Amino acid sequence: MDIKGKVVIVTGASSGIGEATAREFGREGANVVLAARRVDRLQTLAQEIHSMNTGAETLVIQADLSKLEDIQMLVSQTLERFKRIDVLINNAGFGRLDWLEKLDPVNDIQAQMDVNVMGVIQTTRQVLPVMMKQRAGSIINMCSMAGLVATPTYTIYAASKHAVHGFSEALRREVKPWGIDVSLIYPGGVITEFNQHAGIKRKTNAATPKFMLLTAEQVAQAVVKLVRRPRRMWIIPWLWSVTMFMNRFVPGFVDYTTINRFTIPEREDELKEK
Ligand SMILES: NC(=O)c1ccc[n+]([C@@H]2O[C@H](COP(=O)([O-])OP(=O)(O)OC[C@H]3O[C@@H](n4cnc5c(N)ncnc54)[C@H](OP(=O)(O)O)[C@@H]3O)[C@@H](O)[C@H]2O)c1
């Protein structure tokens, strides 16, 4: 797909991967719809995209992706301005990473599912009739390695990303005859504001090894490539595929290492308590 002049919606464009992705589409001369709650950040990004002089137009929309009425408004305003939607990047999302019994039922559990799952489903549901009518479109869903391998403290986040995985797989098989491509991307650790919202305080130094960490720009470039050349799934960096295969074929080993190298050392004080 030639990206110049295409209409691209990027959700969660106010920081991290979404911001870098919107910038990348702007650089390619696409018309970018920037959606998130922090509208000041979106406006700054829109100015930056205009200053690139690539012919890219922008539309800033303040939207809370957990609210259906905001999603409907996002889609209707996009159509009013650009008359079509070529690409949807379902990126908005966050993780609250803690032991399940410590997560707040509403603010952590429900809120994560509302944005990470329902936000993706409802946004796609609103955009789909437009793409079906066009007989063309590209949908890229931001998954995560947590959508393939679930580790302790990631219960809800992993559930949400597994849901995105299943939703996207079924959707891909539903909409292909209409000329619509659905691609899934599974990044490992990416340097963004994600951890600031995650509320994690680890005792052990279990974290993504530095050489495996990605920048938001690297993920953004991969997202743009997926629009040009759709793929069922893209795990980045590819080395994480090893973890996926181990989880599938030697799950007992993965259980043993996560329990003994992570859960028990992290919770040893609590385990000693009577
Ligand atoms: N960082 C990682 O290691 C990593 C790895 C794999 C996958 N991911 C996924 O990548 C995506 C982007 O995360 P990031 O790492 O770039 O984190 P980030 O820098 O914290 O960005 C998250 C984005 O999501 C938006 N968002 C959150 N709640 C929203 C809501 N209710 N309504 C609208 N927008 C909302 C935020 O905008 P506002 O707060 O302004 O609304 C922000 O633009 C997420 O889906 C995440 O799960 C991240």
Offer a few descriptive terms:
two-stranded parallel sheet, 10 helices, 274 residues, globular, seven-stranded parallel beta sheet, binds NADP nicotinamide-adenine-dinucleotide phosphate, alpha/beta, 15% strand, Rossmann fold
Structural account:
The protein is an alpha/beta fold and about 270 residues long. Helix content is about 50%, strand content about 15%. It has 10 helices and 9 strands. The protein has helices at about 15-25, 40-50, 70-80, 105-135, 155-175, 195-200, 215-230, 240-250, 250-265, 270, and strands at about 5-10, 30-35, 60, 85-90, 135-140, 180-185, 190, 215, 235. The strands form 2 sheets. A 7-stranded parallel beta sheet has the order 3-2-1-4-5-6-9, sandwiched between helices. Helix 4 (about 105-135) runs parallel beside helix 5 (about 155-175). The model has no long low-confidence stretch (mean pLDDT about 95). The protein binds NADP nicotinamide-adenine-dinucleotide phosphate. The site of NADP nicotinamide-adenine-dinucleotide phosphate has 29 residues, from helix 1 and helix 6.
Annotation field: number of helices:
10
Strand content: 15-25%
> Distance N terminus to C terminus?
62 Å
| Helix content percent band | 40-55%
Q: Rounded to an integer, what's the Rg over CA atoms?
A: 19 Å
Question: Within the CATH hierarchy, at the fold level, what is the topology?
Answer: Rossmann fold
What string, H for helix and E for strand, traces the elements in order? EHEHEHEHEHEEHEHEHHH
CATH homologous superfamily caption: NAD(P)-binding Rossmann-like Domain
What integer is the average pLDDT? 96
Shape: globular
Number of strands: 9
Q: What low-confidence regions span 5 or more consecutive residues with pLDDT below 50? A: none
Q: Per CATH, which architecture?
A: 3-Layer(aba) Sandwich
Number of domains: 1
- Secondary structure category: alpha/beta
Q: What is the level 1 CATH name? A: Alpha Beta
Small molecules (ligands, ions, cofactors) in the structure = NADP nicotinamide-adenine-dinucleotide phosphate
Strands in their spatial order, largest beta sheet: 3-2-1-4-5-6-9
